[in-house]
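Example 3.2
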Amino acid sequence: MQVQAYTKHARMSPRKVREITRSIQGRNAAEAVEILKFIPRKSARLVSKTLQSAIANAENNNNLSGDSLTIESAIVEDGPVFKRFRPASRGSAHPYKKSTSHIRIVLSDNA
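Structure, written as tokens:
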């Protein structure tokens, strides 16, 4: 059985979040939560929150044990991009983009 959790519109670049999700794919869910606790990055906190939500979904909605869950996939997709402008010299403006991402974590039981 598969259980999943989403975090949408997370204010973090997808590239930065993908670096973290690569390190937890295929691992035991409880082990991955412990690994994420010691990574000092904002993206690790976002992924940890999504992972804990997926574990809670499995325990509360599907009566699965949290110890037997493994991370089948941790996918990070591009979200909408906020386009902003910064004032520059001579009355001009320089554009920049604020990226967002959608984080999806799919857990499966070993049975």
